[in-house]
Amino acid sequence: MNTLIPKWKVVLISVILAIGLTACGSSNKTETSAHKTETAATSTSSEAQKSSYPKKAITITAPSGVGGGLDLTARALSKVLSQTKLVTQSITVENKPGGGQAVGLADFTQEKNNAYQLYLPSAPLIINNLRKEGHSPYSFRDLTPLAQLTTDYGAIVVKADSKYNDLATLLADLKNDPSSITLAGGSAPGSQDHLIAMLPAVKAGVDATKIKFISYDGGGEAITALLGGHVEVLSTDISGVTEYQKAGKVKVLGISAPARLTGQFADIPTYKEQGIDAEFTIWRGLFGSKDMPADAVEYWNAQLKTLSEKEEWKQQLQANGWENGYKNAADFQKFLEDQEKVIQELLTSLGMQK
Question: pTM higher than 0.85, yes or no?
Answer without folding.
Answer: no
